Amino acid sequence: MITKPKGCYDIYGKEGRYFQKINEVVSMLAEVYHYDFIRTPIFEASELFHRGMGETTDVVKKEMYDFKDKGDRNITLRPEGTAGVVRAYIENKMYGDATQPVKFYYSGTMYRYERPQSGRDRELTQFGLELLGSNDAISDVEIISFGYQVYQLLGLKNVKVKINTLGDTSSRLEYRKVLIDYLKPHIDTFCEDCKARLLENPLRILDCKVDQENPILKDAPKTLDYLNDESKKHFQEVCDGLDILGIPYEIDSTIVRGLDYYNHTVFEFIAKIDGKELAIGAGGRYNGLVSLLGGPETPCVGFASGIGRVALAMQEEQIEVEEDAIDAYLLYVNEDEKKYAIYLAQELRLAGFKVETEYLGRSLKAQFKQADRLHAAFLIILNSEELDNNEVKVKNNHTKEEELVSLDTLIYYLDEQLPNFHEEEEECSCCHHHEEEEE
Ligand code: HAM
């Protein structure tokens, strides 16, 4: 048997419904926040990620799906969405458009050669936002609030927002120096990876999973203490904006993010999954990336969220995504009835009803059973004689009452009856609940 590659998943059924629901909420919010959809290639020239995300980052050093194509080009399956969107912004000269900032959202698969575990996949799906061309803190606030609202609308109650600032380039360089000086005398107490990080990427030592408990980290200097006035002001404005929106957040100086392109605001959305804290979304400001990749100086901010992790967080909080019940099931026996079923199923579907019919030529009895299994509200029984009179039999699958309905008025009939059906059904299961509660 051929099996799926390690760290990849077949997503369908209940899990598929989580994915669809999350994407639905994202595209609905993208519409009202006025973010335009963008789809960039799933593979790009390797150089884009090597330059964009930083040679010394874990993602670039260890997790890239790099390969040569048949034309001997160095290609990489995208590990994230930001670099591709920035490339598209530069290549299509969007910086010249009159309507700055440019605001995009996307949803798609990313590839990271990680050690698979719960919430850490090799093929992952992210939705994300990028806002290119504004340096104003109002943009940082909008991105954070979008993420926060997605999780709220999905019903998640226990998501924490953690923010920090790395400051601008000069603050960050100053901080880097101080941090190296502080860590150097103690570096022997850190893991091998961190020893290598000391000069390459010292900020990453602060969020190393292996050295989390190292007491040296407790008293490490904080980025917040090395900000110049400009950087302080920006961070204050972001915090003020979040206060205006009533978004609760925690300032956490250990948030430094794993990718090199960040400066100023960085943030993570944290959920508890299987007792462990996991980032279900993360992002920040990346003012240097457009120019690094060959475009003009363009301040940007963005965020991305792992849809699989959001689904895990929803399951953890017992948020169910129910499948909508079927409105009508069309039953038939002979060929003439079947032809009418083909026609009627389309008519009803185009009128907006969720409709199923018979695909296996089963007996009427088996079709009744199938309709029950699918929780169809109404059974529409096509019978040649009744069809000749322009009528069908409609059975309410809750009250079990049957009625002959004229084909000319069937759509009105269903429109009128469906709310009654759901009301009756709800009341009925309600009494059931009450009984249980009273017990
Ligand atoms: P990131 O922190 O690498 O940032 O990933 C964002 C989110 O993707 C994470 O918080 C997590 O939910 C999810 N994720 C990452 N790796 C995995 C994995 N192996 N398995 C499952 N989920 C994962 C970025 O990707 C940046 N591009 C975010 C950004 C956009 N910054 C600015 N704009």
Explain this structure:
- With 439 residues, the protein is of the alpha+beta class.
- It has two domains: 13-168 and 228-316, Bira Bifunctional Protein, Domain 2 (BirA Bifunctional Protein, domain 2, 2-Layer Sandwich), CATH 3.30.930.10; 328-430, Anticodon-binding domain (Rossmann fold), CATH 3.40.50.
- The protein is 40% helix and 21% strand.
- The chain has helices at residues 13-32, 46-53, 58-62, 82-91, 137-153, 169-183, 192-200, 229-244, 289-292, 307-316, 335-350, 364-373, 384-388, 410-438; strands spanning 36-37, 43-45, 65-68, 74-77, 102-111, 123-132, 160-165, 250-251, 263-273, 276-285, 300-306, 328-331, 355-357, 378-381, 391-396, 402-406.
- Strand 9 (263-273) and strand 10 form a beta hairpin.
- Helix 1 (13-32) packs across helix 10 (307-316).
- The two termini are 51 Å apart.
- Histidyl-adenosine monophosphate is lined by residues 80-82, 112, 114, 119-121, 124, 126, 128, 130, 258, 279-284, 286, 302-306, 308-309.
- Histidyl-adenosine monophosphate binds next to strand 6, strand 10, strand 11 and helix 10.
